[in-house]
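Problem 12. The chain below contains 254 residues. Write out its predicted structure in token notation.
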Amino acid sequence: MSWGTPIVKRGNRFMGFTDEGEIVLKWARQLLSDAEGMRQEIEQAKGMLSGRLVIGTVPTAITYAARNLERLREQHPGLVIEIHSASSSQIWQGLEEFSLDAGITYLETEIPKSLKTEVLYDERYVLLAPPALAPRSEDTATWREAAGLPLCLLTKNMRNRRILNEVFEEVGVEPNLIMETNAFTAALAQVETGTTATIAPEKLVGSLPFSSRTIKLSLVEPEVAKPMCLAVVEREPALPAILALANALSDQAR
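Solution.
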């Protein structure tokens, strides 16, 4: 880069970075990440792994991350862990830009070449409905039955929603969509009020408190399982905190 190259767009206030500025920002983040990795490895050699670990997580895996990362904190109390809710595309971008250290997201057929992934678990789906809307009180429901109910689902920019749309299209039905949200808490609140049903990942449902009246039915015809993965930047040497994270999640998967 020649001196005098503008890296910030000119204006009376900050208007963002130029294309050259984005390149500088990416390399600066990588340099800082490398420096942090060196510091962590030195501290680890002294017997104490410390530092900050920033993890991007799709909304459907938030509770999975929060519960399982407690084991990592127990093993390495010097680590400060940040969990950010983000879409799968935001996670890929954050990893490539070094604003995230790791991501828990859907395993895509095509991922950026700079990243590597490790499957953690399969995401399966259940119908959550108030008693007045549920097709039955226990056992299973079909995707076709779910489509006919008034539904509150995640917004279309979320990978979870695109998965549900793909299943509905495969079955040949249009969901009766009443409301969209980018947070599962809003969808669950709608179920609690008795106005709509929703479709949620099984692991998420198993980790959250619900009214005893809420009906939970596993979805079948078809049975859908989408692999969730840990994604990190392919680099040598790897950050010690990332290696510790991978080990902690692997131990939980066993």
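Discussion. The chain has a mean pLDDT of 85. Students who got a different answer should revisit the alignment rule from Section 12.3.
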